[in-house]
Amino acid sequence: MAYLEIKNFTKNFGDVEVLKGIDMQVEKGKAVSIIGPSGSGKSTLLRCINFLETPDSGVMVLDGETLLDCSKKEKRDDKTLRNKRLNFGLVFQSFNLFPQHSVFKNLTLAPTLLLKDKIKAYKKELKQNKELSFKARKSLINCFKAEQKELIEKTAEELLVKTGLTDKKNAYPCELSGGQCQRVAIARALALNPKILCFDEPTSALDPELTGEVLKVIRSLADEKHTIIIVTHEMGFAKNVSDKVVFLYQGKVEEYGDAKEVLENPKSEALKNFLSSVSEKEG
What we know:
This protein has nine helices and ten strands. It has helices spanning 42-49, 78-85, 103-127, 134-162, 178-190, 208-223, 235-241, 259-264, 269-282, and strands at residues 4-13, 16-26, 31-35, 57-62, 65-69, 88-91, 196-200, 228-231, 244-249, 252-258.
């Protein structure tokens, strides 16, 4: 059974039909690359998966839970969407770091904000225990806060090590290279422990010499069996790191299958032409 299953995603922007019935599956612990020419719907698909866009039709099931069914009326309030988005960690092309905060604060900010909801839930749980005095409840809440804050900071420290940024802990985004900024963005996505990591052209805004350091981090995450969806123009990376490749063409899945098989033995003329154009650019 697929860990993530997308059925019949469609999306229009005005008269422009961007997604035309996308079906896609992702297995747990596997990496899937989405490739295709500009305008094929890659980023739109990724944004729909992350609840940044709403498909016009379709169903999305994650780990047996239906997160989205466009045929049914569902809550669209901010809290509901935020909770659904927490299943995914999205790394953007342009980093989207908070420039006014240090690297460490960028990593701990979102988990700290989410801690408020955890504290509210914990307070509610304690109130149900009538045997606890006000003083005892307050003490337990303070201990819970301290433990959670310690866990958030410990996780951030570990992610700095994982992404090779321990010496940049107190630096600000303006003091970092593009590659370092993107590694911070990856660490920030990991800080919320998402079920699926998503990357939208993570190296497109980088100089060629900085691309390698970012791809190395993503490769290590794939080796650790994180579930990954990556929109990429790096064909070598897609072939060597991904388990599956999805080729989108004019809003449809033109080819889908084993990464090496799809990229080494393309069946459709559209994919053959795309790979040829990519090779010419790289050459």
